[in-house]
From TrEMBL:
Name this polypeptide is given: WAT1-related protein
This protein's record includes keyword Transmembrane: yes
Family annotation (Pfam families): EamA
Species per Swiss-Prot/TrEMBL record: Macleaya cordata
Top-level taxonomy: Eukaryota, Viridiplantae, Streptophyta, Embryophyta, Tracheophyta
Keywords annotated in UniProt: Membrane, Transmembrane, Transmembrane helix
Length: 229
């Protein structure tokens, strides 16, 4: 990335603005903007209200999740250069994650609830969450993400991660009976502006690379014709 070009500067500024928007959404609430929605899921709302607050463990887990996700993007970018098979890599990741999550689930159940029966599934929202994670997130999301990384690179895909905060805020307002404050709205606006600037700069770079490739083909073709003549 060349920061002395308009596209490079747009990518840098867009990344900074997107990061600022993420921090604003996470740490600043501000005045109340929208009250709770009447369209919410009672079972989800009761589960959230009954949960315990973890002011230290929660942010630590979020940081570890972001760090591991960023590392996965980098690994996928390097893997796609030599072995591009999104369905195969998704299958291998899923198989390797099964024993890991199994151990984590058993340890968490024994430590917190003194029984592994806490992880038992029934015909409720927990079963729906598992099916959603398995079918859409793992079965559909991972191959699409791998394909996007192969097409545009890991930084391009990583820039769309802050959109999750906007989606969470909207779903939380609908389903979890949460209010929307000025801070999340301001942060969402910054994220959208920063993302647009980054995507614009990336598209400009891709356009220049494609034009340079076409020019090289034309020059090489003319040179070959001259040599044959």
């Amino acid at each position: 990335m060349n920061i002395w070009t308009r596209s490079g500067q747009a990518k840098v500024v867009g990344t900074v603005i997107c990061l600022c928007g993420t921090m604003v959404m996470s740490f600043y609430h501000g005045p109340l903007l929208l009250f709770e929605s009447d369209l919410y899921w009672n079972e989800l709302a009761e589960g959230v209200k009954g949960g315990q607050k973890a002011t230290i463990l929660g942010p630590v887990l979020v940081f570890l999740s972001c760090a591991s996700c960023a590392g996965w993007f980098v690994i996928q970018d390097r893997l796609n250069r030599t072995f591009f098979a999104p369905y195969t890599t998704t299958f291998l990741m899923t198989v390797m994650s099964i024993p890991q999550f199994g151990v984590i689930g058993v340890v968490e159940s024994l430590v917190t609830h003194k029984s592994v029966g806490h992880w038992a599934l029934g015909f409720n929202v927990r079963l729906l969450a598992v099916l959603y994670s398995g079918i859409l997130v793992s079965g559909f999301g991972f191959p699409v993400t791998t394909w996007c990384i192969q097409r545009r690179g890991s930084p391009y895909v990583a820039m769309f991660s802050p959109l999750v905060l906007i989606i969470v805020a909207i779903i939380g307002w609908f389903l979890l009976h949460e209010s929307i404050h000025v801070g999340p709205l301001l942060g969402a606006t910054l994220i959208i502006v920063g993302l647009y600037m980054f995507v614009w700069g990336k598209n400009q770079e891709i356009g220049r690379q494609e034009n340079a490739a076409v020019d090289n083909q034309i020059v090489n073709g003319d040179g070959a014709q001259v040599a044959q003549a």
